[in-house]
Specification:
single chain; alpha+beta; NADH Oxidase; binds flavin mononucleotide
Length: 172
């Protein structure tokens, strides 16, 4: 699939079949996620694949009861690694880590779509319970939960602002 096609066709998928997603698929997704650029190539990001039903249910509860999280065969929790970004000081901690993880998440979403699977970027969750559920050390911060599975829906494109409204020339 062409990159431009994947970008245009991708949708957030929030309903999944029970069909499994193979471990090799998850490994390839993580490889592709980590092909994304990162500040200084420090790759200050980590990924946790969750398949256990009880753990997924706990994550769904922590994510304001977004229960589709527990219905996906696998969830990839994308995390910042503050130790790996330490070289860049405050700007690394406050900004670069979110560039690094955001770029990786988008790679996952596009690759998932290319594979005929579906996923959604979930950012609305209470961090403390998620840290406890996943036993995260202090320097690891969860930024997104990405449920991945076989889609049972084909949502329409959500309206986007027109380029002519969001592009300014030369200055604000
Ligand atoms: C930072 C961020 C947080 C998001 N959090 C959630 C979320 O908690 N739950 C959810 O269902 N979708 C979430 N989304 C997905 C957006 O709702 C979705 O991308 C947007 O409505 C556009 O739809 P599309 O992805 O189908 O184009 C999030 C997306 C981003 C980038």
């Amino acid at each position: 699939m062409e990159v431009k096609t994947a970008i245009r066709e991708r949708r957030s998928i929030r309903a999944f079949k029970t069909d499994p997603v193979a471990e090799e698929v998850v490994i390839e997704l993580i490889e592709l996620a980590n092909m994304a650029p990162s500040a200084g190539n420090l790759q200050a990001r980590e990924f946790i694949a969750v398949r256990d039903d009880k753990t997924k249910e706990a994550l769904a509860a922590a994510a304001l009861n977004q229960m589709f999280i527990s219905e996906a065969p696998v969830c990839i929790v994308v995390c910042v690694n503050y130790e790996r970004i330490a070289h860049y000081g405050e700007r690394g901690r406050e900004l670069y880590v979110f560039h690094d993880t955001g770029a990786a998440i988008q790679n996952i979403l596009l690759a998932v779509h290319d594979m005929g699977l579906g996923a959604v970027w979930v950012g609305a969750f209470d961090e403390d319970p998620v840290k406890r559920i996943l036993n995260l050390p202090e320097h690891i911060r969860p930024v997104a939960i990405v449920p991945v599975g076989h889609p049972v829906e084909q949502p329409k494109m959500r309206v986007r602002r027109d380029p002519s409204d969001i592009l300014r020339k030369e200055s604000w």
